[in-house]
């Protein structure tokens, strides 16, 4: 059974041949449905649509209090230290772009592994960075990172918490110790990790974490960058405008300290409230419950897919000892886009295909320039979802597609 209820879990979708089927959502790594608790929090916040940090009226006062409370809850969710800053941004991409401009402003290089999602690769490419090619094992990849950090000082090591392609999780505490031993800070792209594992900046020593609400069972439009204050106070304002300043004169501007410095414009009250509600709901689960739920489903998905003839599961590393419920696979003789189209049209199952905004991972490491299919699960998934996918892939392997399909997206 699902661990947490979400909005739209019973959505009936039309299927080829007529009729409808319950939607099986196994594309949570792209965007997860909203938790019911999140929808309730948004509904409760909407009547108090006052402008955050602007206005003496009661709606504005309530909105401001709720926004700042949401900020605190988001920080608590990732175990923020007392002096850490929580910047409410649009998403992980936004968070990492902000951090990239902070690093550029202070100077210094960023070390990054090449299999990252583009959100944790391209922002660094706008400045001084060194790209470490991932090896076929975690051990060797860490050795390469260590060698790169030892070569000459770097300001930051930027790594993913969990791969959006294969779900593999890197040993963050080891990487943190490594970065710190070489005088660098560490930033973790937790877009995929945060919905599945507890994160604690205080306990792990990680300096910065970035994540997105829409992958964490909240709707779109809000994410967070959480971490050390000094770089964020010194960074150029991420969004220059009202609210980001202390004083504006004819001859200059006194910028506010972080987080306001980076949150120019009217704050996203509903986004922050939704994200905080998702954080609160996940944090309230009994210790280990989410991980146990997802591990059981993940194990069944892996063994089920691996048992099907002509189906290959892909991994970046031979020795990763942990992974979240994200599985990349291909079916011999069938293009990934065809597989995902058949799953959607004939079975009402949502998965993703393509190169998952991680082109180097797909091409250089997995050697799949044509992409792969990705199934991803979470707190709202059930064994029935996994069995439905396995049965549908089995039918596709044995009988082939029932209809003809035309690609309608760009598969990137
Ligand atoms: N990093 C990873 C690992 C991701 O999976 C994603 C989203 N696919 C991102 C960053 C970017 O997240 P967003 O699109 O919400 O900015």
Automatic annotation (TrEMBL):
What superkingdom heads the lineage?
Bacteria
**Domain Aminotransferase class V residue range list:** 24-389
Q: Does the keyword Oxidoreductase apply?
A: no
Q: Which reaction does it catalyse?
A: (sulfur carrier)-H + L-cysteine = (sulfur carrier)-SH + L-alanine
Its cofactor is: pyridoxal 5'-phosphate
Task: Recall the GO molecular function terms of this protein's record.
Answer: cysteine desulfurase activity
Q: Which InterPro entries match?
A: Aminotrans_V_dom, Aminotrans_V_PyrdxlP_BS, PyrdxlP-dep_Trfase, PyrdxlP-dep_Trfase_major, PyrdxlP-dep_Trfase_small
Entry keyword set:
Pyridoxal phosphate
What does the sequence similarity comment in the record state about its family?
Belongs to the class-V pyridoxal-phosphate-dependent aminotransferase family. Csd subfamily.
What the entry lists under PANTHER family is as follows: CYSTEINE DESULFURASE (PTHR43586), CYSTEINE DESULFURASE 1, CHLOROPLASTIC (PTHR43586:SF8)
Q: Would you tell me the protein name for this molecule? A: Cysteine desulfurase
């Amino acid at each position: 059974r699902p661990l947490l209820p979400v909005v739209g879990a019973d959505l009936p979708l039309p299927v080829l041949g007529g009729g409808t089927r319950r939607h099986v959502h196994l594309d949570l790594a792209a965007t997860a449905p909203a938790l019911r608790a999140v929808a309730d929090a948004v509904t409760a916040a909407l009547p108090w649509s006052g402008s955050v940090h602007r206005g003496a009226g009661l709606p504005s006062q309530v909105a401001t209090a709720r926004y700042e409370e949401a900020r605190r809850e988001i920080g608590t969710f990732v175990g923020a230290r007392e002096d850490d800053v929580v910047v409410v941004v649009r998403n992980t991409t936004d968070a990492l772009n902000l951090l990239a401009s902070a690093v550029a402003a202070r100077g210094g290089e960023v070390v990054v592994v090449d299999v990252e999602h583009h959100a944790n690769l391209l922002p660094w490419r706008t400045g001084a960075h060194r790209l470490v090619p991932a090896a076929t094992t975690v051990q060797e990849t860490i050795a390469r990172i260590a060698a790169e950090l030892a070569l000459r000082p770097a300001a930051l090591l930027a790594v993913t918490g969990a791969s959006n392609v294969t779900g593999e999780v890197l040993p963050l505490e080891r990487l943190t110790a490594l970065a710190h031993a070489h005088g660098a800070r560490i930033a973790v792209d937790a877009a995929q990790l945060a919905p599945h594992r507890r994160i604690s900046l205080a306990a792990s020593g990680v300096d910065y974490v970035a994540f997105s609400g829409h992958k964490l069972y909240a709707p779109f439009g809000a994410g967070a960058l959480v971490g050390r204050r000094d770089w964020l106070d010194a960074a150029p304002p991420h969004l220059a405008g009202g609210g980001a300043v202390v004083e504006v004169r004819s001859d200059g501007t006194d910028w506010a300290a972080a987080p306001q410095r980076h949150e120019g414009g009217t704050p996203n009250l509903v986004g922050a409230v939704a994200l905080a509600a998702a954080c609160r709901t996940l944090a309230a689960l009994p210790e280990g419950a989410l991980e146990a739920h997802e591990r059981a489903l993940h194990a069944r998905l892996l063994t089920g897919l691996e048992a099907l003839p002509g189906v290959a599961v892909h991994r970046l590393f031979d020795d990763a000892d942990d992974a979240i419920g994200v599985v990349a696979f291909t079916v011999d003789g069938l293009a990934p886009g065809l597989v995902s189209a058949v799953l959607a049209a004939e079975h009402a199952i949502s998965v993703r295909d393509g190169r998952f905004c991680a082109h180097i991972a797909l091409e250089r490491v997995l050697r799949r320039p044509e992409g792969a299919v990705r199934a991803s699960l979470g707190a709202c998934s059930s064994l029935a979802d996994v069995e439905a996918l396995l049965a549908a892939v089995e039918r596709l392997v044995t009988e082939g597609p029932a209809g003809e399909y035309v690609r309608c997206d760009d598969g990137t």
